[in-house]
Amino acid sequence: QVQLVESGGGLVQAGGSLRLSCVASGITFSSYAMGWFRQAPGKEREFVTAIGLYGHMTRYGDSVKGRFTISRDNSKNTVYLQMDSLRPEDTAVYYCASDSRLAAVTAGTGAYWGQGTQVTVSS
After folding, report:
1. d(CA 12, CA 104)
2. For 88, phi and psi rounded to 5 degrees?
3. Closest CA to 13 of 80, 63, 84, 69
4. Which among 29, 56, 92, 108 is least surrounded, fewest beta carbons within 10 Å?
5. Residue 8: which residues within 8 A CB-CB, separation 6 or more?
6. What is the Cα–Cα distance from 88 to 122, expressed in whole angstroms?
7. What span, in angstroms and rounded, lies between the C-alpha atoms of 112 and 96?
8. Residue 110 has pLDDT above 90, yes or no
C-alpha cells in the first residue's frame, strides 16, 4: 500500500518561512518523481513544484519561482518543500504527489497523492 504523508504545515506571518516534508512508503522512492500541489478555498488545484528521481531536474510554478525550493533525500524516502518569503496568497492545503514520470507529476496526473497539510500565511 502506497502512502504519502505530509507534515510541516502551520500558521506563519507574511515574509516568514516553512518547510514541508512528505514521507513515502510502499514505493521504491528513488524510482519516483515527486512534487507538490496546492489548493486554496474556492480555487483550482495549482502546480507548485516537482523534482526528478535524483534531484537533478526540477520544475516550479511561476508564482513560487525564486521563493520555494524542492529537494529530496532518497535515503529517507522524503521530499521537502522549503518555502521562503511567504505571502498571504500562498495560503492553501499543500499536497504531495508521486509518479514514475516527472511529466505526470508536473501535469497533476500523478499516480499517488497525500492527504495534504494546511499552510496559512497571515498578513
Report:
1. 31
2. -55, -35
3. 84
4. 56
5. 18, 19, 20, 21, 81, 117
6. 6
7. 8
8. no
Which pLDDT does position 81 carry in this prediction? Answer: 98
Q: What is the mean pLDDT of residues 49-59?
A: 94
Those residues whose C-beta lies under 8 Å from the C-beta of residue 3, and which sit 6 or more positions away, are 24, 25, 26, 114
Which amino acid, residue 29?
F
Of 79-83, 89-93, 110-114, give the lowest mean pLDDT range.
110-114
State how far the Cα of 27 lies from the Cα of 31, in Å rounded to an integer.
8
pLDDT of 27-39, one tens digit each? 999 999 999 999 9
pLDDT at 66 over 90: yes
